[in-house]
């Protein structure tokens, strides 16, 4: 999959805009901390970009997120793999458990 990305700043915040033929354009606000009310969104490895986890607010539709308020956070490629592997085991990652999951995975527990 080929993505076209545009990095920009607006009102002092950083963003990544991602375009791909056949899919809607998505804009992710780059954050330093996992925001309250968000969950890790299981998407492709280089979406929004390599090493970034995509974060979204859960929707009322099961296993879906609200698409107009997306965020992303850099964790690096290796940690991205670990976090996604953790989620694929049926475990969700939210603001409330992110730090403990992150630290456990970092230590190899």
Outline the secondary-structure elements.
Blueprint: E1 4-10, E2 13-20, E3 23-30, E4 39-41, E5 52-56, E6 70-74, H1 77-88, H2 98-107
Parallel strand pairs: 3-6
Antiparallel strand pairs: 1-2, 2-3, 4-5, 5-6
Describe this structure as you would to a colleague.
The longest helix is centred in the C-terminal third of the chain and has 12 residues, at 77-88. The model has no long low-confidence stretch (mean pLDDT 89). By secondary structure, this protein is an alpha+beta fold. It is 20% helix and 33% strand. The chain is globular, with a radius of gyration of 14 Å. It has helices at residues 77-88, 98-107, and strands spanning 4-10, 13-20, 23-30, 39-41, 52-56, 70-74. It has a six-stranded mixed beta sheet with strand order 1-2-3-6-5-4.
The number of helices is 2
Q: Tell me the major beta sheet.
A: 6 strands, mixed
pLDDT average, as an integer?
89
User: Rg to the nearest angstrom?
Assistant: 14 Å
Identify the overall geometry: globular
Tell me the β content.
25-35%
């Amino acid at each position: 999959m080929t993505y076209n990305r545009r990095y920009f700043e607006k009102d002092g915040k950083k963003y990544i805009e991602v375009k791909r033929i056949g899919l809607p354009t998505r804009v992710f606000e780059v954050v330093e901390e996992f925001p309250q009310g968000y969950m890790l969104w299981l998407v492709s490895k280089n979406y929004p970009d390599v090493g970034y986890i995509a974060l979204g607010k859960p929707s009322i539709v099961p296993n879906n997120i609200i698409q107009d308020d997306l965020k992303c956070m850099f964790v690096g490629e290796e940690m991205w793999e670990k976090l996604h592997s953790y989620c694929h085991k049926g475990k969700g990652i939210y603001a409330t458990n992110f730090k403990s999951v992150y630290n456990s995975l970092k230590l190899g527990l």
